[in-house]
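Entry 14. Two folds queued back to back today. First construct below, sequence then structure tokens.
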Amino acid sequence: MQLAIICIKQIDRDHDKNMKILFRLVLPLFSAWILGAAPASAQETYTVVFKDHRIVPDVLEVPSGRKIKLIVDNQDPTPEEFESHSLNREKVIPGKSKATIFIGPLKPGSYEIFGEFHQDTAQGRIVAK
């Protein structure tokens, strides 16, 4: 009986040792994978502004082949809807508010953006180069 208890204790020690080694190897890889997947850390950030029912700048150049984080700052007192059919994005932004929109990665080209509530004046485009 004592021999069985000694064997079980040895197995437990070996298991604990193996688990510690495994944990030391896996944790850094898992952490790198999680951090690499974080959307905000991997993208460059750009800003467009709705002001006086216009988009400023009306042409925004971004790198092609990369995801970007677009901050849309509605400085007007009324809501505006950021919209782009070519980017497949739309978002209503209350007056005096900001919104974050993730885009891409984009192929080289020009992508129309506009404010749907003031289409006659709020026109712009994102150019990926």
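Second construct, same run, same settings:
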Amino acid sequence: MKKYDITISAILMVVAAGLFTASSGLPEVEGAIGAGTWPRVLAVLLFLLSALLMVQALMGHSSKEEPFDIHSEGFKRVLKGIGIILVFCVLLKFLGFMLASAFMIPAIMYLMGEKRIKVLAGLTVGVLVAVYLIFSVALSLPLLQGSLFV
């Protein structure tokens, strides 16, 4: 397990550095929290937690168990989740953020075990309204529009 912890922590540290760099292009607001602040905060937290995982692994505090079984139901669910995210990325390009998210949110919820249609629909609408209000209204950031609608 030690080699898995070290490998995963190194990969996540690189991802965190990339996210931090990519977020530097977002708009800044003098003396206030701007659009680029939260991505940078999350990138720093990801980096610090990844570094902590690496330190724990190097000090010998990793679990002795195998990290996962590729034949388990949980691993198959992870693969389905990755598939949903990949479809989301394709839909994002063509349909834009709101419509792609209207697919992804209930799909992930269903994958995680939620079967009630009213809950799936209600939470999807609630999350999308919240995202619109926070980003489009409060932060004045346009949401990604798909190439089919531009």
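Quick look at the second one. The chain has a mean pLDDT of 86. The longest helix spans residues 73-95.
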